[in-house]
Amino acid sequence: MGWGIRGQYGHETGAMIAGVLVGFVLVLFYLPNASSLKDARTVALLALGVSFGGSMTYGQTIGLTHDAPLIGNWSALCWGLCGLFIKGGIWIGFAGAFLGLALSGKRYQPWELLLVMLAMLVLWMLGIWLINTPYDPANKVLPSVYFSDSWKFEPDGELKPRREIWGGLFLALVGLTSYFHLVRRDLLARNMALIGFLSGGFGFPIGQSVQAFHAWNPELYRSGWLGKLDPFMNWWNMMETSFGAIFGGLLAGGLWLNRHLIIQDEPRDQVVIKPIWEFALFEIFLILLVGVEFVEVRMISLFLEFGFIMALIPSLGILERIWNCSSES
Description:
This protein is mainly alpha-helical. The protein has one domain (2-322). The protein is 67% helix and 0% strand. It has 13 helices and no strands. Helix 5 runs parallel beside helix 7 (166-183), helix 11 (275-294) crosses helix 12 (298-305) and helix 11 runs antiparallel to helix 13 (307-322). The chain is globular, with a radius of gyration of 21 Å.
């Protein structure tokens, strides 16, 4: 349901709706006796992690599997589903990573997360340069691994190829998972990042297969009970809700398999950040957010183009408010 609602809003903000709903369900199942602050931290970090993938373009990737000019083109179908596997995996991989980070009991200091986020930003830019370039649609020059519609599948089409950034997000996710594994030895965060990747990787193409099947087999929906049902169906939303059901179920199942790594009993969390600093962080974030939505300022607009930068201030607020315990703890 959360991913279906997400489709009405899109991008990073819409994805966080599913993160919040999934997060609440998981803490109710796996943390029945945890403090309210730990529950809030888990839900907030999951919502934050699932937001990163909202900056990817995926509409034309879906189009490769069901657009009218490509119906019957098995090469385009397979390539589109492959792209959805990778993009879905990246999207939910970050969600799983941040979920595991919240539940593992490892202490991540704000300065540490700041450095990790900056490193991820560097990897993001490097990944775009290595994987998502060259990009010169005016001269029909596109990356060698490109999952949006291109002249490869429609040589004579009047196309508007999209700028892809999935390579940057993929490299950033690999870097984050490697940090969990090699530096912090955080098995739960590492495992959930991998499980999240598989959850989204299978969820997105399987969900889209529902919509693609409808587009590829119109004769099945011209008569009978399917014909009566078809006018009332939103097949795009069917794809979204199927994707959400699959990744939510697999993510929950993966967490169940790793439930022995969940830390249930931790020292009592205490809020130690001074209100003035918390209010300052909130005001800065609010100004940037409102500026992006209502004021056309190029430098502020860049704020929402980079998911890691947008998440930096909220992540610091989450860690400072919830994770910093007093010395007595």
